[in-house]
């Protein structure tokens, strides 16, 4: 047998071993068994999904209402299950509902004090957004990031009335930038990294995730989350849970899949994105996906084979669509640190090609970096790109991509407030310090000096 034939057989053998091993990990690790505390999913203006798991198969039931002492509405499952999913409908917008899970013979009282949620409002209101990235490594760092951010938000309410009254939830929109469960996205890893450390929050706040490379085990990710496919939460129906849109107050959120979906210009995701952005009528647009278009952190967006070209695809194919639609802020994870740009535009090549011509505005210096944009939304007015991928661990990297103004090798998460025509974003580290802060103010009277790019 020739040497070439031996090498070919060896490569085939290695590939088969890898495939079988991967299947076993995926299949065995994704079996949904055991107890899981109740959590809310896909909250909209008029609906919500309540989920929980039990040791034994039983007919799940949820009772709910606007008063914890009196929950008159009841919703039952269609059949007995261990993995329970109950959808509540015909709810009122901007309303607090209490709920309790159980079975036909009685209700579970273990977590009742945490079991409530607010439906999305049908009016414009101040909006607080919490962003975690690459949170899937449970332990002290992840716990510190969680606690420091929640404490900071309690101590710094978005508006004065929230400091003195029960004016709404602590977090309005909770975004996760992928890699919620290391290392292979199994059910046990989701339990350890998400459902246990965040159980108090999940009981009353829906999490809106994007698909990361370590979550890329469909048997778990798409089994534990309920995500909109038919435009239930706003925007154009995507007909898939891989990518979707959310409308909340005066903000339009677009959650893209940089991991698995077709990333070509003519693919379904690109076509959906263009339709969704064209139909948006909200003055603020925030986009999230896992693989960053610019990074020199634990990944390098210049390297064609890093992450199999996903970062390059998002930069070259999707950024032109986002900037043409006037997107304000793009959030990514994947690199395990914090990086953040100025308002930039039309930088679709390598870092060596980035120049001052791509900077729309360097902002106004002060306690926070202040940027301005005109109203209404328009093409190529400048977009800020932020990478917040250090919510459970921090890795090394030069952090010298010229597109970025800030680079921090620190654990943390982002808190973003949108109040009328002003967006303020902060990176809160695991010690509760706001280590980066910037704002964007939109004004119909503002006229930018930026003349546009020549791309």
Overview of this protein structure:
With 455 residues, this protein is α+β, with helices and mostly antiparallel strands. The chain has three domains: 1-30; 36-118, Sandwich (Immunoglobulin-like); 127-443, Metallo-dependent phosphatases (Purple Acid Phosphatase, chain A, domain 2), CATH 3.60.21.10. It is 21% helix and 29% strand. It has helices spanning 3-29, 140-155, 160-164, 187-195, 199-202, 218-224, 268-279, 310-324; strands at residues 36-41, 48-58, 60-65, 73-76, 81-88, 96-103, 106-107, 116-118, 127-132, 173-176, 207-209, 244-248, 251-255, 284-288, 329-332, 338-341, 343-344, 359-361, 369-374, 384-388, 404-408, 412-419, 422-429, 434-443. It has a seven-stranded mixed β-sheet with strand order 11-10-9-22-23-24-19, with helices on one face. The chain has a seven-stranded mixed β-sheet with strand order 12-13-14-15-20-16-21, with no helix packed on it. α8 (310-324) links the parallel β14 and β15. α7 (268-279) packs parallel to α8 (310-324). The longest helix is centred in the N-terminal third of the chain and has 27 residues, at 3-29. The protein is globular, with a radius of gyration of 22 Å. The termini are far apart.
Q: Write the CATH fold name of the largest domain.
A: Purple Acid Phosphatase, chain A, domain 2
For the record, the count of structural domains works out to: 3
- Rg measurement, Å: 22 Å
- How many helical elements? 8
| Unreliably modeled segments | 5-30
Number of strands: 24
User: Looking across the biggest beta sheet, what order are the strands in?
Assistant: 11-10-9-22-23-24-19
- Cα(first) to Cα(last) distance is 55 Å
Oligomer: single chain
Structural class: alpha+beta
The CATH superfamily of the largest domain is identified as Metallo-dependent phosphatases
Please state the average pLDDT score: 92
CATH architect. name of the largest domain? 4-Layer Sandwich
Shape: globular
Largest sheet: 7 strands, mixed
What CATH first level of the largest domain would be assigned? Alpha Beta
